[in-house]
Structure formats: C-alpha cells, structure tokens
Design brief:
By secondary structure, the protein is of the alpha+beta class. The protein is built from three helices and seven strands, in the order ββββαβββαα. Helix 2 packs antiparallel against helix 3.
Length: about 150
C-alpha cells in the first residue's frame, strides 16, 4: 500500500522550460515527477531525488549542489477515486510536498516505461495549463514568483 505522503518535483531550465511527463495509465494526463514516500521515515528530499531518477533518469548527484530544492510548500488534496485502491482502506487524502530542479539547459530524459509514455519541454505559461493536477499547475506557476 502507498503512503499518503508524496513529493512533486518540477524540473525546469534556466530559460524557463518545464519538463512534463505523460502518464501511461491515462494518456493525455501530463504532469511533473511525482511519487510517494517508500517508508514513513524517508526524508522528503531523498524521496524527491529518488523519484527524479526513477522517472526521468536525471541523477541529482551529477547536478550542481542545491539544484534540487524544496519549494517550502505542501498541500493536502483528495486522492482521485481511480487511484484510491493503491492506498489503505479509508485513505482519501494525500499530503504533497513541492520541490524544484533547476537545470542549465535541457538534458536527456529516460522515461520509466511502466509510468510514462512521452515527455515534452514547454515554457512555464504553456506547461502549467497542460497539467491535469491543479496543484501541479500551481507549483509550476510558483516558479515565476520565486
């Protein structure tokens, strides 16, 4: 069963292009990197780095120091009904912690084939409305205010 604590990792370049991934289980659903903690004591930043590597092949250890940063934002949201079966009985809400990764420029992306089928780089103002998740949209738009 999944732990209802997750990370959202927005990847963007110095020229304000955002990386979006298309969900395999829902074609047309675009998102940033997301994932639940592997254990309740997994540090959030480590979960963000792990999910980044698993879903894109981007290894934080090869990036400049502090490329992965907390956005100091967390939200609680209702888990979509079609995904509640992944959690324990009666779990309907998830707490999501936001992170960002600043890259100098686009990097090669290796998708996790079980999770995603395609990716694209888009300017912030185009990327945000493409995301199906309102919190993902908000996190992307927050890049402009940081």
């Amino acid at each position: 069963m999944k732990i209802p604590i997750s990370v959202l990792v927005v990847i963007y370049t110095a020229s304000n292009e955002v990386l979006l991934l298309e969900r395999k289980d829902h074609p047309g659903y675009w998102q940033s990197v997301t994932g639940s903690l592997d254990s309740v004591d997994e540090p959030l930043i480590e979960a963000a780095a792990r999910e980044l590597m698993e879903e894109t092949g981007i290894d934080v250890s090869t990036l400049p120091p502090n490329a992965l940063q907390s956005m100091n934002q967390q939200i609680q949201y209702e888990i979509y009904p079609q995904w509640r079966h992944r959690y324990g009985e009666g779990v309907t809400e998830n707490t999501e912690h936001w992170f960002k990764v600043l890259l100098a420029k686009r990097v090669p992306v290796t998708l996790a084939p079980r999770e995603h089928t395609a990716y694209q780089w888009q300017p912030i103002e185009i990327a945000a409305p493409l995301c199906f998740s309102p919190s993902n949209q908000q996190a992307i738009l927050k890049l402009n205010s940081d």
